[in-house]
């Protein structure tokens, strides 16, 4: 009987291993290191859901990159007639303030994505740190950390967003996106920490970790050399989850008016559209495009999150026709 | 005595990226009514796959390519889902590997028994006496009926599973690794009890395990399986006292036993492997210390050994015997 | 099992291990034999009593001294599918203990010689393999090479063959014997299986519910067991030649 | 054998108290961590808005209201804060001056609870059924559709959905009221017109919250039930010839309990959702007041709401956890 952990590991190792065996010299060395760099991407394309999510996400990134270098008009300038419906000159019409919606959409993509990604990365880093430390520390430390995590888990995120938001509003300083990112990270790390704590607890009880303790490995070395590697799929999956939270959180922060409303992103676009009751006067071109793009972005993250779970968790694995299975007695 | 189970030309494989990997190759076996028939095999032999194929409970990606499994005059592999469900637990039953985990964790044992009655249209009130008698057989007190599985020890859960499988008195009982994960002392007790019940009720029992020692201890007949094929089968005593296949011979020699001298002769080499389709000769050739050129060329067929109830698959017999 | 339970799992155990001895510890599950193994490597601490190693009480060691003690007393686990890190190859597994114990020779040569020691030859064929590419028996050998890399004086083998195929068991047990002979280290072989114990050990202790019920020379105990529990274990040890008969 | 899992329940209650105390402390600390002090901020805003028409004594009154005083040590402040709490004194609202916060909460809470409980219950049942169907029929078209739909719903911003619903069904469709909890002119109390009117007004908010929280249940149930389908006990029940509905029932019941754990965790999430929806549907619950409190920087009200929501969430958690302990026989062991 092979433990589950093993089967999971085998899955992830296969790529790695196939790469190791190719002897490297010259151009093939570059090629091989490129392949190695994209090995995780290979894993993502294994599953239909994560593949679809990846395609959507890449499309979003491409859209954002275009938006950085080119917009038809200045996104924040009040240049045009107010509330014009879509036309050849204004693909998605104009806002109630006379701005070009399509330009705003393009320009707002990069900050929206950046917030999603930075909340995803920083939030995941914090939760990995907290989770792994608590999962691998002494019982006492573990319980204290667990208590703190529980407090953050139980308190509704919206409350914290409001409180932190009110705090930053009170500062009356323009700090760009920093407050938003801080608010979202501080409300979004706890779930991941709980996940990492439980996976670390289970990994650290395995024989191969005990074995490392016995040969005299230090805790830090075990964490970095072994545990992080073992829980990597969970980390990546959690990254997408937290990134999704970050994107959704951005819309909340903006909707509640505790973010910086002068900046152009899909969250503020929604805020202004809603505040001007675009939905009541039939200006669908103002409210729907940012709403749909945000949904698609979050959809991409969630697809990647669930798809990766299916890859990492053998119990959820889909047997594609034509998949090699080795029988073990 | 009549034949209760007959396996004819059974081929089983696993579907994979490069077509199907064969696990069981052209398997033939006849089992007489009322005996304990043991099938022994190490990892890679395909014995668990075989057990599931015989019960027609193999799941994808495992597929039965061809063959028949005749039980009670019917081909089990051709039964509809509905017919198959009806004969299970009533005519034939399967006790799975790691049976102590096979109970539903959120339901009391008594209710799980009642589920079996409900499924087969038995009256639940009238059937309570059957539970009492079957619990009695496996030496469990009726109190377990009010327990949840996690409240019982591993051995008790194992006994419960056996009781549940036997409660409708099936004619053929298939056991896959009946004692894996059990404590030595419990293992011994359960084996004794299983055998006692079998002798009392007279059903046919098919035991499949990697543990040669316990297999020889309880079986009347033994078949050795290596890489998806039978290497030798026959009555226990013939198999034990004068094996005609090197695999059986060397395994028996290498089993450590209390008080026995250590075997220092020719040893089995290498590790067990799966069935190999590229190998046109003998499947055992990679590990056989007695192999000769002829073993590479011809695929050995089963040949009669002692009388009509012993067969072996080796072209070198009896030359290799010391 | 929680920690507090397992600490109580042993009571008043007195045991001695001689130099270059193959000692067997026998018991059914719940006898406390695995707890004993974990106490010996100080994964658990004894609530009372002492562990004396080379004349010094080691039961309260911490930090550097603990690591030093552990490098001298290594353990082989039951399940070779769980004791090797699936994300690292064979070479890594053997290299780490060498690096940690600051091996002062040529590490590469040492890895090769350790692999040869456990009969994984030629070493080059195994160094870059990952655990999932090895069979159960090969994994257990790799694990032994890892344990031997710290140059231990004592090797504790906790059910090292119970998850292996029948035909591989003898090879691993023979390996234990040859390690004992060639390296002169002491081995504690922990198992429920009296068959294998009787084959390779010099002396045995029989544990029942955390207590030593019988100990002494292996041969005399298996041929003439005094304690009823030992008798039960011997009776239950599977033997193909002893058919189970029922009336 | 069927006794309550006492140890488990005690453990839960201890955790409840610990988390509650943590939340209290956080609630106490936050206004004190604010830059300057909240009283000053409010005072300055009021000063600006009224064009210097406010007396400085109002600032001191505000400071007293917040319990902020620079000459008392922090632990004494904390003690008097706790003391006030246990006497039900949550201070006076600024936005609705001079109504006490406790009065506002007392009126708003039932409406919020009504929304939370009805929408959670509906989405729990529908979500579990859909998830059950998807998990048991995985890789069929039905599974894929349910799966993708759930993911998309989980990804759609809740408040946008609320606006769309409001727009389609109330503004254009004129099928449902645009706001409020019951029609004007209906007397509150146990009478038929009131109940009908309440239910009618709740349809849109409940439907919106249900839709946005559905995805979590569906996906949770689906992912719980799939490993169950491959479990040893399902295999054995098939070996015993159990009927299809029996086998599915076993898989479902085993998957349901872990999903209940998710249920307890998601109460906080649902409350978040409700807060947003209430403000959009002008539903007179806690959420609507919360938006007002934020807009007006009404700290006492905000603190009061914060506290109450946390209590509600914690109690919800406690109830579900205890329920789980009674329903799942395995938990009794774990509690030991």
| Overall number of structural domains of chain A | 1
The helicity of chain B comes to 25-40%
* Outline of chain B: globular
CATH class type of chain A: Mainly Alpha
- Calculate the terminal CA-CA distance of chain B, rounded to whole Å: 36 Å
Biggest sheet layout of chain A: none
> In what range is the share of β-strand residues of chain B?
15-25%
Helix content of chain A: over 70%
Which descriptors would you attach to this protein?
heterotetramer, A: 329 residues, mainly alpha, MetI-like fold, 71% helix, disordered N terminus, disordered C terminus, D: 336 residues, 77% helix, globular
Short characterization:
The complex is a heterotetramer of chains A (329), B (322), C (247) and D (336). Chain A has 329 residues and is mainly α. Chain A has 14 helices and no strands.
Would you give an account of this structure?
The complex is a heterotetramer of chains A (329), B (322), C (247) and D (336). Chain A has helices at 4-21, 27-37, 39-44, 48-69, 101-136, 139-154, 157-171, 178-188, 190-204, 207-214, 219-230, 232-255, 266-275, 284-312. By secondary structure, chain A is mainly alpha-helical. Chain A has one domain (49-328): Orthogonal Bundle (MetI-like fold), CATH 1.10.3720. In chain A, helix 4 packs across helix 5 and helix 12 (232-255) packs antiparallel against helix 14 (284-312). The radius of gyration of chain A is 23 Å and the shape is globular. Chain B has 322 residues and is α/β, with parallel strands linked by helices. Chain B has helices at residues 47-54, 81-87, 109-119, 124-137, 154-166, 184-201, 212-218, 236-241, 246-254, 293-297, and strands at residues 3-16, 19-32, 36-41, 62-71, 74-75, 92-95, 172-176, 204-209, 221-226, 229-235, 303-304, 310-312. Chain B starts with a strand and ends in a 10-residue tail after the last strand. Chain C is built from ten helices and eight strands. Chain C has helices at 3-7, 33-40, 63-72, 90-100, 107-117, 136-148, 166-183, 194-200, 218-223, 228-236; strands spanning 22-26, 52-53, 56-57, 73-76, 154-158, 186-191, 203-208, 211-217. In chain C, the strands form two sheets. Chain C has a six-stranded mixed β-sheet with strand order 4-5-6-1-7-8, sandwiched between helices. In chain C, strands 2-3 form a two-stranded antiparallel sheet. With 336 residues, chain D is mainly alpha-helical. Chain D has one domain (6-35, 90-335): MetI-like fold, CATH 1.10.3720. Chain D contains 13 helices and no strands. Classes of the chains: A mainly alpha (329), B alpha/beta (322), C alpha/beta (247), D mainly alpha (336). The interface between A and D is large, with 49 and 54 residues.
């Amino acid at each position: 009987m092979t433990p589950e952990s093993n089967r999971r590991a085998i899955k992830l190792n296969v790529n790695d291993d196939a790469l190791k065996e190719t002897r490297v010299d010259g151009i093939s060395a570059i090629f091989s290191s490129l392949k190695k760099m994209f090995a995780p991407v290979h894993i993502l394309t294994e599953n239909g859901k994560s593949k679809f999510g990846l395609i959507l996400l890449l499309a979003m990134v491409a859209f954002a990159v275009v938006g950085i270098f080119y917009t038809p008009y200045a996104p924040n300038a009040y240049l045009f007639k107010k509330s014009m419906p879509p036309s050849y000159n204004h693909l998605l019409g104009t806002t109630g303030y006379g701005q070009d919606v399509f330009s705003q959409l393009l320009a707002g993509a990069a900050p929206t994505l950046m917030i999603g990604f930075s909340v995803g990365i920083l939030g995941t880093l914090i939760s990995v740190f907290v989770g792994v430390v608590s999962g691998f520390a002494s019982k006492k430390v573990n319980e204290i950390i667990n208590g703190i995590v529980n407090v953050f888990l139980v308190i509704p995120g919206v409350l914290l967003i409001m409180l932190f938001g009110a705090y930053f509003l009170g500062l009356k300083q323009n700090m760009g996106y920093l407050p938003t990112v801080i608010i979202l990270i501080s409300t979004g790390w706890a779930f991941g920490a709980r996940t990492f704590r439980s996976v670390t607890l289970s990994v650290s009880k395995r024989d191969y970790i005990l074995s490392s303790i016995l040969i005299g490995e230090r805790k830090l070395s075990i964490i970095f050399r072994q545990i992080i590697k073992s829980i990597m799929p969970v980390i990546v999956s959690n990254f997408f989850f937290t990134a999704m939270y970050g994107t959704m959180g951005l819309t909340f922060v903006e909707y509640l008016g505790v973010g910086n409303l002068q900046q152009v992103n899909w969250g503020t676009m929604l805020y202004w559209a809603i505040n001007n009751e675009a939905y009541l006067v039939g200006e669908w071109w103002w409210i729907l495009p940012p709403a749909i793009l945000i949904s698609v972005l979050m959809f991409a993250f969630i697809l990647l999150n669930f798809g990766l779970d299916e890859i990492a968790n053998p119990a959820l694995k889909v047997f594609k026709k034509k998949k090699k299975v080795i029988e073990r007695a | 005595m009549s034949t209760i189970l007959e396996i004819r030309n059974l081929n089983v494989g696993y579907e994979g990226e490069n077509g199907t990997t064969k696990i069981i190759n052209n398997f033939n076996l006849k089992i007489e009514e009322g005996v304990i028939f043991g099938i022994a095999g190490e990892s890679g032999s395909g014995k668990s796959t075989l057990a599931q194929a015989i019960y027609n409970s193999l799941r994808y990606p495992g597929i039965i390519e061809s063959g028949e499994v005749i039980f009670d005059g019917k081909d089990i592999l051709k039964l509809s889902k509905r017919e198959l469900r009806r004969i299970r637990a009533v005519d034939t039953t399967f006790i799975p590997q790691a049976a102590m985990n096979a109970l539903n964790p959120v339901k009391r044992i008594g209710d799980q028994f009642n589920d079996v009655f409900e499924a087969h249209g038995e009256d639940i009130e009238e059937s309570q006496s059957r539970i009492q008698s079957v619990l009695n057989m496996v030496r469990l007190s009726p109190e377990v009926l009010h327990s949840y599985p996690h409240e019982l020890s591993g051995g008790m859960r194992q006994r419960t599973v056996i009781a549940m499988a036997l409660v409708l008195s099936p004619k053929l009982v298939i056991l896959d690794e009946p004692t894996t994960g059990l404590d030595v002392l419990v293992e011994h007790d359960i084996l004794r009890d299983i055998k006692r019940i079998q002798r009392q009720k007279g059903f046919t029992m098919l035991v499949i395990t990697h543990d040669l020692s316990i297999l020889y201890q309880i079986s009347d007949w033994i078949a050795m399986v290596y890489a998806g094929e039978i290497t030798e089968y026959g009555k226990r005593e013939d198999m034990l006292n004068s094996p005609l296949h090197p695999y059986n011979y060397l395994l028996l020699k290498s089993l450590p036993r209390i008080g026995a001298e250590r075997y220092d002769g020719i040893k089995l080499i290498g590790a067990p492997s799966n069935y190999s389709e590229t190998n046109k000769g003998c499947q055992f050739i990679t590990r056989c210390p007695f192999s000769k050129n002829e073993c590479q060329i011809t695929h050995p067929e089963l040949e009669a050994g002692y009388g009509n109830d012993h067969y072996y698959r080796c072209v070198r017999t009896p030359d290799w015997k010391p | 099992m929680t920690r507090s339970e397992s600490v109580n799992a042993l009571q008043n155990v007195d045991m001695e291990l001689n130099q270059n001895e193959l000692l067997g510890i026998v018991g059914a599950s719940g006898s406390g034999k695995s707890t004993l193994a974990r106490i010996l490597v100080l994964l658990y601490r004894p609530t009372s009593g002492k562990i004396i190693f080379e004349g010094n009480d080691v039961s309260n060691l911490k930090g550097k001294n603990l690591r030093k003690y552990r490098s001298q007393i290594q353990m082989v686990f039951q399940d070779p599918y769980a004791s090797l890190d699936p994300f690292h190859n064979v070479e890594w597994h053997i290299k780490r203990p060498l690096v940690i114990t600051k091996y002062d020779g040529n590490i590469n040569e040492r890895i090769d010689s350790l692999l040869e020691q456990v009969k994984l030859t030629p070493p080059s064929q195994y160094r870059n393999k990952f655990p999932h590419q090895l069979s159960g028996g090969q994994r257990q050998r790799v694990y032994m090479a890892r344990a031997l890399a710290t140059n231990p004086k004592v090797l504790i083998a906790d059910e090292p063959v119970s998850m292996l195929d029948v035909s591989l068991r003898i090879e691993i047990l023979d390996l234990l014997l040859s390690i004992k002979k060639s390296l002169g280290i002491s081995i504690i072989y922990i198992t429920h299986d009296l068959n294998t114990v009787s084959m390779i050990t010099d002396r045995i202790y029989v544990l029942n519910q955390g207590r030593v019920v019988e100990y002494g020379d292996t041969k005399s105990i298996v041929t003439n067991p005094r304690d009823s529990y030992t008798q039960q274990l011997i009776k239950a040890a599977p033997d193909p030649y002893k058919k189970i008969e029922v009336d | 054998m069927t006794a309550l899992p006492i140890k488990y329940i005690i453990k839960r209650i201890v955790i409840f108290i610990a988390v509650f105390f943590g939340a209290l402390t956080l609630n106490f600390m936050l206004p004190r961590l604010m830059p300057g002090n909240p009283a000053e901020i409010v005072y300055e805003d009021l000063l600006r808005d009224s064009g210097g028409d406010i007396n400085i004594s109002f600032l001191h009154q505000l400071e007293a209201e917040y319990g902020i005083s620079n000459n008392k040590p922090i632990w004494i402040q904390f003690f008097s804060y706790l003391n006030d709490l246990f006497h039900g004194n949550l201070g006076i609202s600024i936005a609705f001056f001079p109504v006490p916060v406790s009065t506002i909460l007392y009126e708003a809470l039932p409406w919020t609870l009504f929304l939370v409980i009805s929408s959670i219950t509906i989405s729990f049942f529908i979500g579990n059924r859909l998830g059950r169907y998807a998990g048991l029929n995985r890789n069929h078209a039905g599974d894929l559709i349910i799966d993708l739909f759930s993911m998309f719903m989980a990804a759609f911003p809740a408040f946008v959905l609320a606006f769309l619903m409001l727009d389609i069904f109330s503004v254009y469709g004129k099928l449902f009221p645009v706001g409020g909890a019951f029609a004007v002119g209906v007397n509150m109390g146990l009478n038929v017109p009131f109940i009908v009117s309440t239910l009618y007004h709740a349809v849109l908010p409940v439907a919106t919250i249900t839709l946005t929280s559905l995805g979590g249940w569906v996906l949770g149930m689906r992912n719980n039930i799939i490993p169950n389908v491959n479990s040893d006990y399902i295999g054995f029940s098939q070996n015993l010839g159990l009927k299809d509905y029996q086998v599915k029932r076993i898989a479902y019941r085993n998957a349901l309990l872990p999903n209940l754990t998710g249920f307890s965790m998601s109460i906080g999430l649902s409350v978040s959702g409700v807060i947003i929806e209430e403000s959009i549907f002008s539903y007179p619950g806690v959420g609507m007041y919360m938006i007002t409190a934020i807009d007006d920087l009404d700290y006492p009200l905000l603190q009061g709401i914060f506290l109450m929501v946390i209590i509600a969430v914690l109690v919800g958690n406690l109830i579900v956890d205890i329920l789980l302990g009674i329903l799942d026989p395995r938990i009794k062991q774990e509690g030991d």
